[in-house]
Amino acid sequence: MVEKLKQPGRLGLAPENFLSEEQIKEIAEGRRDFLRKSFLAASAAMVAPVIARASDGDPDILNLPPWTTTLGQPVATNPYGLPSKFESQLLRRESPGLTRVGGSSVSFCPLQGLFGIITPSGLHFERHHQGWHDVDPARHRLMINGSDPQFLKKPKVYTMDEIMRLPSVSRIHFIECGANTGLEWGNVAVPTVQYTHGMLSCSEFTGVPLKLLLEDCGVDYKKARYILAEGADGSSMTRTIPMEMVENGEVFVAYGMNGEMLRPENGYPLRLVVPGVQGVSWVKWLRRIEVGDQPYATKDEAVHYIDLQPNGLHRQYTSIQECKSVITTPSGGQTLLSQGFYNISGLAWSGRGKIKRVDVSFDGGINWQKARIEGPVQNKALTRFNINWVWDGKPAILQSRAVDETGYVQPAYGQLRKVRGTKSIYHNNAIQSWKVVESGEVSNVQVL
Amino acid sequence: MSRFSKSVLVCALLSASVSAFAFDNYLGVGREAKPAEVKAWDIDVRPDFKGLPKGSGNVERGQDLFEEKCASCHGSFGESNEVFTPLIGGTTAEDIKNGRVGGFVKGDIPQRTTFTKVATISTIFDYIQRAMPWTSPKSLAPDDVYAILAYFLNLAEIVPGDFTLTDKNIGEVQAKMPNRNGMTTNHGMWSGPSAKKGGIGNGGIPDVKNIACMTNCKPEVLIGSTLPEYARTAHGELADQNRSFGPVRGTRTLGPEAAKKAAELGTLELANKSGCMACHGVKNKIVGPGYNEVAARYKDQPDAESRLIAKVKAGGQGMWGSMPMPPNGHVKDEEMKTLVKWILSGTK
């Protein structure tokens, strides 16, 4: 028997008498206790000499774990792979009390546990205006027309088959909701970075520049200076976008996200990508583009997504997400394990271009040090920064401050509020502060 | 150069000149939209009323329609804060005259209702037509939208009770919108050209300026706000929202006992929020059976969970008497599972 097993490529028969008839019956009845017992007995017999001397070292080294001593699972056990069962804590979550209806709500991305700059597609934040659908790509259409027949030679309809035949681009961009950090305008309100900054994600999107499609329809750029983008969902969400962003090739209709098709919650099968601009303009389930000669004052640019200023006026058509950053490790609601070395890590981004620099302070903004920018620095994309820190067990206040390629420096809360007050709801890009106390607990504070 | 390569060159030049037009360039891709197709989808209404369908509706009919189709979420007078933020309120006769909502100017506005904010009446027409009612968007005819909007305008005391709103007089109503002068585009956050160049805003000039100072930047650290104790626990057990290994742990905010209690309370709240408790008691029949009865009936049935989920989703009649249960498509799958598990476990 043993000889046979040694021959490569031969399968050995299971030892038939390994289980008694009685034991087989017990298994059939779902009683497996005896197996566990006998396994424990067997392993105890095997490793007993080691266990007896825990002082020899780490039991997780000295006692070989089952994954080292048994056969693993075969390929395609999960035809669509899933995260480890040990990763069940990092989920999209809602903030209680924020909205009353799930169909018009937000789920926040768990930034506190993510690495690098790409958001796993299953953790991409969600914001729906009237619920999401899994749209049938075979029945999805993109229509392009003009508010006036003069603006476009030929209104056209495209199927997904046709859109996916066209020359494509793949680009990495961040998407941030205009209301991200909006809960914190007046005071600290939420405990973790998931809820302060989690309406933020970054993906590689693949699709067709809108410029190409509009030119295919014979757009008249002289007359049509705005576009209206419209979704196919119940809300048929609409937003106005300047034609300049289309003409310069930045805006594209995307079907791909991180190498696969968009997820239904993110607009499957087609969404607009408007780099640097707040998420509401990245219309999901995109069904129509209209070219026109004036802005549209749609509900989401005339009732919502307008920024109330101290003089009582609302800023309308605010779109750009200004330069911003946040430390994600460590961050609010976390506790440092002990004194000593930590790699402080965070994200920086700007709707006006590339990140030029990120500074980090450990003393609440009195002194700053330049952080390392890690990985690729791309236009209107998340940028990862890191800096070394040795925690001496004393209280500290951690902050990050990003500078973009236009020279704009992320402001402090005091500076932002001086100009915009505290009731703006949208576009809070203030410096985030995390307070560390002696116990190692990290919490959300605002430094003026 | 051979003749062949010359013809290739001519072809190349030709195609270059064609691509300058870029029209009909992507052969076989896309087709011309038919007028009826454009009409079916091009429903937007602009501030200059381009796209506004012809029609009319009066306040009285609007009130009936609103009561029937809208009031369950918005409240009969547009005041509801239960499901959605209020539509009406917070504006005065003075505001209608000035076109600025005084509550914003003075900074004492009690609540930001739709009518305190919106400057353009086209916005409301467009939105009702495209997205309302919540569960059956695009089901209102233009005359319905006119009527409902007339009712709003009357509630907001912009028009009298015998008013009929039409495509002809909507422009006059625009001139009375209480916050019509309350918007500004003079800011640096428009992603297109500035107003000076025919666009919007100031061309992207930021309104806040910080300096990247590096050392001794200020004499002291001023803390403006810290996390209130209630907010520390309002988002559940933070220990369970962080990885269980790595440089940090999630802070234990509730502890295991409190977390369990919060989860139970959470489910009852979820049942409330989802509208279940209007017809079912935890231990008593209301219109439908009590959850104790449901749990008893499904006891020891291995597929109870999936069957009950299907039942709750689709609704039904007969199993518990003649009173039908409506379908509950609005409840999320994950929440439905939580609720059904909770019911089957005897609401423990």
Brief rundown of the structure:
Chain A is of the alpha+beta class. Chain A is built from ten helices and 24 strands. In chain A, the strands form six sheets. A five-stranded mixed β-sheet of chain A has the order 4-3-12-7-8. In chain A, strands 5, 6, 9, 10 and 11 form a five-stranded antiparallel β-sheet that branches. A five-stranded antiparallel β-sheet of chain A has the order 19-18-22-23-24, with no helix packed on it.
Account of the 3D structure:
The complex is a heterodimer of chains A (448) and B (348). Chain A has 448 residues and is an alpha+beta fold. In chain A, 15% of the residues lie in helices and 28% in strands. Chain A contains 10 helices and 24 strands. Chain A has helices spanning 2-6, 21-28, 33-51, 59-62, 66-69, 160-163, 193-197, 210-216, 243-247, 413-420; strands at 106-107, 126-127, 141-146, 156-159, 169-176, 200-209, 226-231, 238-242, 252-257, 260-261, 271-273, 286-292, 307-308, 314-315, 324-329, 334-336, 340-349, 355-361, 369-370, 372-374, 383-391, 396-404, 433-436, 442-447. A 5-stranded mixed β-sheet of chain A has the order 4-3-12-7-8. In chain A, strands 5, 6, 9, 10 and 11 form a 5-stranded antiparallel β-sheet that branches. Chain A has a 5-stranded antiparallel β-sheet with strand order 19-18-22-23-24, with no helix packed on it. In chain A, a hairpin with a 7-residue loop joins strand 18 (355-361) and strand 19 (369-370). Chain A is globular and about 85 Å long. Chain A starts with a helix and ends with a strand. Chain B has 348 residues and is mainly alpha-helical. Helices cover 40% and strands 7% of the residues of chain B. Chain B contains 15 helices and 8 strands. Chain B has helices spanning 3-21, 35-41, 59-69, 71-74, 93-98, 102-106, 114-117, 121-131, 142-155, 170-174, 229-233, 256-273, 291-298, 304-314, 333-344; strands at residues 31-32, 56-58, 164-166, 183-184, 223-226, 248-250, 316-318, 321-325. Chain B is extended and about 70 Å long. Chains A and B meet through strand 3, strand 4, helix 8, strand 7 and strand 8 of A and strand 1, helix 2, helix 6, helix 8 and strand 4 of B. Strand 4 of chain A pairs antiparallel with strand 1 of chain B.
